[in-house]
Design brief:
The complex is a heterodimer. By secondary structure, chain A is of the alpha+beta class. Chain A has 5 helices and 5 strands, in the order αβαββαββαα. Helices cover 28% and strands 13% of the residues of chain A. The model of chain A has no long low-confidence stretch (mean pLDDT 89). The C terminus of chain B is likely disordered. By secondary structure, chain B is an alpha/beta fold. Classes of the chains: A alpha+beta, B alpha/beta.
């Protein structure tokens, strides 16, 4: 053992002392993820606020962790939540089970289910980690209206699926105009 | 046996042919369809329209194969579901023939052209033959770029069935089922060519009377649920099950229908402890693959909000029922019953819906714990004559020794006496129709008017006034020689319904008729538990295992088997339901144990309520509140059929065992409850579980072998009254869908109930000044029942009303089948029921 060896060990310490700190002070300081980072799920809406979810349960079928529970419901003319016949009456994701694999998003036939950046899925209560439909629904953007309400963008669900993207673009175009 | 061995020369049995399928030699019975022969050797040819129980149609063209007969190939691929095997035929399926494979792929592509991409919202998704075959045999992409044909959807063609014409592949399974099996051709193929569609007269939007198949009626069939089950796409879906769940959510359990004595095998699908739907199970010997709408759709009573889940005890202070612990409820009950046993005695009304095991527990409880023969399962009109007939001809019979479904199918002639097959035992009705349609069985009905069942079984109706059925039977030899001759042929049957108990002398007449002609008689009760209760000894004259109450030796053997002291079993003949209620009303019974009996079903509902009020103590063993609950001192909750195991004996005497579907609900089967109650009374029943009860009953049955005595039946007193002025004879029987207690919370099912009408002959109507469609009323001194009148071809001075739709005839009039009642035209403002 050499004479300078004890001091050598501090070499790393001293050299690091003057470098830029990479430690993140989470949760005191929040750092946003990359924009395309996929964490918590979200149930999207059509441009008029109707739900995209049709309650088909394909997400639940695809889920390898059995984390999703869906129950379908029947739309009526008086009480409409989504275009077409069927909507998701009950929708729950158990984040104690979810492994974030995203197979549910791939399975979704209406692009209702997508994932957003929000990743803070930890709690000390089981019940708080079972997200229900209210927790998962996308927020209402300008121009959207909370369902139930009649179809505003067309006569039937075909209009929504066929022209949905166009309508979306039109609407966002208008929003930009409005902003300018 | 079917696969030819390797030797060159194979023996072809008589009536069989040898053919080659995919290079493999097969021996098949003549007339077999190629699609089934292929299936037997393990080659599944895709199909949609083919169904083994329906006539071949060749409608979907999915099962195309290449066929070569006599060395000559047929020019085009053939539908294997319509072509019968022939000697030397060479068949190449999609497995060995590129032509067949391409043809099938082509058909699939054409079928999918107009099929909407609806799978995510379609109830069939996940269990859809079209979906499965499109995945297995179809192309990955569609070449069709044009607009699909669309229809408005969904159309409700009855309250139960929803039609989506876009999804339909025109396989005609539903229309063929309705026409061939059920005999209700309300649904038909309409239009031609590309606009061909399934529909009812209501859905057809063209005004061409030629394409209307029925007179504007919706799809009102008691069997419409089967069309939903056999639809190979999602064109017909169930309104009740709409969007409730997906196949992968469901846990399926085999079950047995608890609604009637047919004993249908069923499949119960549940999700998270709740039954979502029921499907017909497969049992070729019983229900084949069908069931009735009541069995399929009526299951929500078990999840009804008002179901009793905790014991209720009437508070001694304020006289109100309050929830109590099991310990308290059992203590109160046992003290009261012990007191009543020491006093005037206890009567047991066990009801007609018990499993064999539960009925046995009731029977043993009455004899051992209560020391009485006062127990009767018959919660309906009944007679001693009926009990004699049951002891003489029905007790202990089984399909091997007595009439079975197979016998109905083979019978040359069947006589239905006081029995409405379609209303009271729908699967018996389907068999009658099948044998009449396929084998030309002659079906005779003795009744008051030509019910739909008479027409659909191609039947012959012998009309008579209600109550005169016995006289008709006695007069057969004289007045209906062709029927007499038909009943003398080998295999002829006489089916007797529960209504026979209301006609004095009818069981004796049936007994002497079968003695005279050699036809065999079968009793077809309505309720699922009646046959089992008879064999399990829940009857006033019969102990378990068919031991008569007055057979002292057998009773002593039973005493030693049950571990009782000699002479412990009661030797006095028990009272029947009416006898017990009358005794209780007179104060000759101190307590009544009532197991799921609705007073409205009893011969005298008013008297029954009086008796319940008069009895010192009433124990109600129930699932949901009933008029008995209001008068009970203690109410003990029990498990519905889904939450217990057990077995029913169906009308044939066939044991229909079932396991627990919804486990762990904590609801107790009757046998467990009675066992615990008996322990509280210091008696052991050994019926802790249905399995234990069944084992105990099996030991009892070994004692005497539980057989029908074959003794002749003596006619009961049949003093016929004369009609007074303004009176007519009342004919009445239960309909399949009515206001029964197991049909609560079922709006979809109730929608297909038959319209409640009052039927009478035109001459009678004229005499009483009643017009068609206008309300008419029947009345007795107790009350009035008003219904719209319908003119029907039936004997004069007879009026028919449904027994429990909308209200119980028994409770409204205090009268039943064969009674004399007053008839009058009701004012138009009166309620139309």
């Amino acid at each position: 053992m050499g004479m300078f060896d004890p001091i050598k060990g501090f070499g790393v310490t001293f050299s690091t002392m003057f470098k830029k700190v990479v430690t993140e002070q989470y949760p005191e300081e929040f750092h946003p993820t990359a924009p395309r980072y996929r964490a918590r799920h979200q149930l999207n809406r059509h441009p008029d606020g109707l739900e995209k979810c049709v309650g088909c349960e394909l997400c639940a079928w695809a889920c390898p962790a059995d984390a999703i529970f869906v129950e379908g419901g029947d739309n009526t003319e008086e009480e409409r939540y989504s275009p077409g016949e069927r909507y998701g009456k009950d929708y729950q994701i158990n984040y104690l089970r979810c492994i974030g694999c995203g197979l549910c998003v791939e399975a979704c036939p209406t692009r209702s289910l997508t994932m957003i950046n929000f990743y803070e899925l930890a709690d000390d209560d089981r019940r708080k980690l079972i997200y229900t439909k209210e927790d998962l629904m996308a927020p209402l953007l300008p121009g959207m209206e909370e369902p139930p309400h009649p179809m505003r963008l067309g006569d039937d669900e075909q209009d929504y699926y066929t022209y949905g993207p166009e309508l979306e673009r039109d609407r966002s175009g208008k929003d930009e105009e409005a902003l300018q | 046996m079917t696969i030819a061995p390797e030797e060159q020369q194979t023996q072809v049995p008589e009536g069989h042919v040898k053919l080659t399928i995919d290079g493999q030699e097969v021996i098949a019975p003549e007339g077999e369809l190629v699609i089934r022969t292929a299936e037997r050797i393990g080659t599944v040819i895709p199909r949609f329209c083919d169904h083994p129980l329906l006539d071949p149609a060749g409608a979907c063209r999915q099962c195309l194969v290449e066929v070569e007969v006599n060395g000559r190939a047929m020019p085009k691929p053939q539908a294997s579901c319509t072509i019968a095997v022939a000697d030397g035929m060479v068949v190449q399926t999609q497995k060995s023939s590129e032509v067949a494979n391409k043809a099938q792929e082509g058909v699939m592509e054409l079928l999918l052209i107009n099929h909407p991409l609806d799978c995510p919202i379609c109830d069939k998704g996940g269990e859809c033959p079209l979906q499965n075959q499109a995945m297995a045999h179809g192309r990955a992409t569609s070449r069709f770029v044009d607009t699909k044909r669309t229809f408005p959807k969904p159309l409700s063609i009855s309250s139960q069935v929803l039609l989506d014409r876009e999804r339909c592949v025109q396989c005609q399974r539903c229309t063929r089922f309705s026409e061939q099996i059920a005999g209700d051709p309300f649904i038909e193929m309409l239009e031609r060519g590309p606009s061909q569609q399934v529909g009812t007269a209501e859905t057809s939007d063209i005004v061409d009377s030629a394409s209307h198949t029925s007179a504007g009626e919706p799809f009102q069939s008691y069997f419409s649920g089967n069309t939903i089950q056999i639809c190979p796409v999602g064109a017909l879906t169930s309104a009740e099950y709409r969007f409730r769940s997906r196949p992968f959510d469901l846990v399926s359990a085999p079950s047995v229908c608890e609604h009637c004595a047919a004993g249908c095998a069923q499949r119960t699908d549940f999700r998270r402890g709740k039954v979502m739907r029921r499907l017909a199970g497969e049992d070729p010997e019983v229900n084949e693959e069908w069931d009735c709408d009541k069995g399929r759709f009526a299951f929500r009573y078990a999840a009804a909000r008002d179901r009793i889940r905790k014991p209720l005890v009437r508070d001694s202070g304020d006289g109100v029922l309050r929830e109590a612990s099991w310990t308290e409820a059992l203590r109160v009950t046992s003290e009261a019953l012990l007191g009543a046993r020491a006093g005037a005695g206890v009567g047991v009304l066990s009801g007609g819906r018990l499993t064999v095991e539960d009925a046995y527990a009731y029977a043993k409880f009455a004899r051992v714990a209560l020391g009485t023969n006062d127990i009767d399962f018959r919660a309906r009109a009944h007679s001693d004559e009926e009990l004699e007939f049951l002891t003489g001809r029905v007790l202990g019979t089984s399909p091997g020794s007595a009439v079975s479904y197979a016998d109905i199918e083979k019978a040359p002639a069947v006589l239905c006496v006081a029995f409405e097959p379609e209303e009271e035992s729908p699967i018996v009705f389907l068999r009658l129709r099948k044998s009449a349609r396929d084998r030309g069985t002659r079906v005779f009905h003795i009744g008051q008017w030509a019910t739909p069942a008479v027409r659909k079984t191609f039947g012959e109706l012998l009309t008579c006034a209600p109550g005169a059925e016995a006289a008709v039977l006695d007069g057969i030899a004289e007045h209906a020689s062709d029927l007499d001759e038909a009943l003398r042929t080998d295999g002829a049957l006489v089916l007797v319904g529960e209504r026979a108990a209301e006609v004095p002398g009818l069981f004796a007449a049936v007994d002497s008729l079968v003695r005279r002609t050699g036809a065999r008689a079968a009793w077809v009760p309505r309720r699922a538990g009646e046959r089992g209760s008879l064999d399990a000894g829940a009857a006033p004259t019969l102990l378990p295992g068919g031991i008569r109450y007055d057979d002292e030796r057998a009773r002593n053997e039973l005493e030693s088997l049950w571990g009782l002291e000699g002479g412990a079993l009661p030797a006095r003949r028990g009272r029947d339901t009416a006898g017990m209620l009358a005794a209780a009303a007179r104060g000759e019974l101190d307590a009544l144990v009532v197991g799921g009996v609705d007073p409205d079903d009893l011969p005298d509902p008013e008297g029954a309520l009086r008796a319940l009020r008069a009895a010192g103590f009433v124990l109600s063993i129930e699932m949901r509140p009933s008029p008995v609950t209001e008068l009970a001192d203690v109410v003990l909750p029990i498990a519905p059929a889904d939450e217990k195991s057990g077995s029913y004996l169906n009308w044939e005497g066939r044991s229909r065992g079932f396991e627990v579907t919804l486990a762990g609900t904590g609801a107790l089967p009757d046998c467990r409850l009675l066992d615990t109650l008996a322990v509280e009374m210091d008696v052991d029943l050994f019926t802790q579980t249905p399995a234990a009860a069944a084992a105990d009953l099996a030991k009892v049955c070994e004692l005497r072998g539980s057989t029908a005595t074959g003794q002749p039946v003596e006619a009961g007193s049949s003093a016929r009254r004369e009609l007074g002025t303004g009176q007519v004879w009342l004919a009445t029987w239960r309909e399949l869908i009515d206001n029964a207690s197991l049909q609560v919370d079922e709006p979809y099912l109730a929608g297909t109930a038959r319209r409640a009408v009052l039927r009478l002959s035109p001459a009678t109507a004229q005499r009483f000044g009643i017009e068609r469609g206008k309300p008419a009323s029947v009345h007795t001194e107790l009350g009035t029942l008003t219904l719209p009148a319908e003119l029907t071809d039936m004997p004069d001075d007879v009026v028919w009303v449904p027994a429990r739709s909308p209200v119980s005839v028994r409770s409204a009039l205090g009268a039943g089948h064969g009674a004399a009642v007053g008839l009058a035209a009701a004012s138009t403002e009166g309620d139309r029921g």
